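Let's inspect one such protein example.
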Amino acid sequence: MNNEDLKQRSYIEFFYLGLLGLLWGMPYALTKIALSTIQPISLVAGRVLLAAVALWLFVIIRRCTMPRLLDFVPAIILQGVIACVIPYTLIAYGQKTIDSGLAAILNSVTPVFVCLISSVWTRHERLTAFRWLGIAVGLGGVVLVAGATALLGLGRTLPGQGAIVLATFSSALSAIYGRRFINVAPEVTAAGTLSIATLVMVPLCLVLEQPFHTAPSMASLLAIGINGVAATALGFTLYFRLIRTLGSMGVASVGYLKPGFGVLIACTFLDERLTWPMIGGLIAILAGVAILNQRAAERETAPRIGLDARAA
């Protein structure tokens, strides 16, 4: 592959990373809308159920090659738990008790956790001082976008804040563990992940929240629909593709893009004011993401390990 091809490939992967940031930035507003008339576990259950159905229909229509189920099923169970069940439930719970700005900051430290896990345990990606700089710059940008005053809420509602931090740590683990599926079609991995989440969350919401006794508003139902099909189904397909091309550190940098896109969406559709600190934060986020992903799309970021896509 020549330099021109590598450059074009980099642009494509960075476009997909930006698109994933947009898709995963939308749920900040959508979750708030849905939670007005729908309980947290029911919200998560509806979101992953819609996404799983949409993805399996796509897999069937595209006739994607399936991996050997004996290897795939145990691995995808764990991936579904750490990528969906734990983060979605804890974030929905946390957002009921803490401000969205602080939630955005706490939920954006996924790259930090990926670096720490890689440093002390997996050592699967080389961590340079330049990458640590990217982490610091991106995180600083998130703080500016969310508002530094949001940090004043640290320590006030510890259960909610702890839930967001645990959700972020689980997301970091999923970005690392997801390297196991680099030889499987992203649509298949995403469908399997969300199916496991559905099998856990739907019975849980039926037992704990009894959603059939509630009357969700049309706005809440529409928010779940967009959240499930766009943010979750399409988002997870892009997520597993980017783990293959950018590596776990690269895909974790979407944690910085999510609040950035969330602010832009709010300023565009909700008439919120875009301030100069926010603009500076957005620039810092882009710089941090660029540093973290420098040349990432030009190399294989993970060894060819894990599952093979072959007929079951």
In short: Confidence is low (pLDDT under 50) at residues 297-305.
